[in-house]
Amino acid sequence: MDKLLISNFAASLFALLNPLGVLPIFIGYSAGEKRTVQRWLALFVALTALVLLLIFFFAGSSLLRFFGISLDSFRIAGGILLLIIGIGIVNGNSSQAAKDLIAEDQQSDFREAQLVYRKIVIPLAMPLLVGPGVIANVILYATEAEAKKDNALFVGLLGTIIVICFLVFVLFLSGRWLQKIVGDVGLNIVTRILGLIVAAIGVQFMITGLSNIIVNSLTPEILKVR
């Protein structure tokens, strides 16, 4: 099992999901709700992100084969996408969603959380959390594990997705507390750092993909000369 690949996947997935950057939006959506409702909302959003990630994780390689896209080509395209998203995060150009909430009514906390969740699942869960960069990243690493035919690596990546989604749940659950500790400025600084990491990962993806394509294209020519 490639532990370095798993650690890179964990870092890139957490950075791309950017729960700290989405946290202020979640707080804005749930600010007027009771604590119990906020907990249910955190759970609903985290589970939605988990389901979406698992879908793309298991179906990603099949999509590549269906469209006839090579791994290196997808790596370059994903790298460009990650670079653009990373630059956007560093510059603070994140999406801003409307903060309209459903009026409170006499109902259970679970039911009230369901109603609010239906209102905010788009754009909070997708695309703010599970956006195109996350999708490209998950497909890329899943395809990498399949290419290496390493079942342990595949399970490790799957476990990483579950752990990261659990961290998203914990962060949203403790959103108010975290905001009081680090403040808006602290959240903004952490978000910019995550954006820089995303941009660097995107550049590395492009370098690796271009290197592989160049090497693969030159190898036949070298063999012909010999």
UniProtKB/TrEMBL annotation:
<keyword id="KW-1003">Cell membrane</keyword>
<dbReference type="Pfam" id="PF01914">
    <property type="entry name" value="MarC"/>
</dbReference>
<keyword id="KW-0812">Transmembrane</keyword>
<comment type="similarity">
    <text>Belongs to the UPF0056 (MarC) family.</text>
</comment>
<feature type="transmembrane region" description="Helical">
    <location>
        <begin position="41"/>
        <end position="67"/>
    </location>
</feature>
<protein>
    <recommendedName>
        <fullName>UPF0056 membrane protein</fullName>
    </recommendedName>
</protein>
<feature type="transmembrane region" description="Helical">
    <location>
        <begin position="193"/>
        <end position="215"/>
    </location>
</feature>
<feature type="transmembrane region" description="Helical">
    <location>
        <begin position="152"/>
        <end position="173"/>
    </location>
</feature>
<feature type="transmembrane region" description="Helical">
    <location>
        <begin position="6"/>
        <end position="29"/>
    </location>
</feature>
<keyword id="KW-0472">Membrane</keyword>
<dbReference type="GO" id="GO:0005886">
    <property type="term" value="C:plasma membrane"/>
</dbReference>
<dbReference type="InterPro" id="IPR002771">
    <property type="entry name" value="Multi_antbiot-R_MarC"/>
</dbReference>
<feature type="transmembrane region" description="Helical">
    <location>
        <begin position="73"/>
        <end position="92"/>
    </location>
</feature>
<feature type="transmembrane region" description="Helical">
    <location>
        <begin position="120"/>
        <end position="140"/>
    </location>
</feature>
<keyword id="KW-1133">Transmembrane helix</keyword>
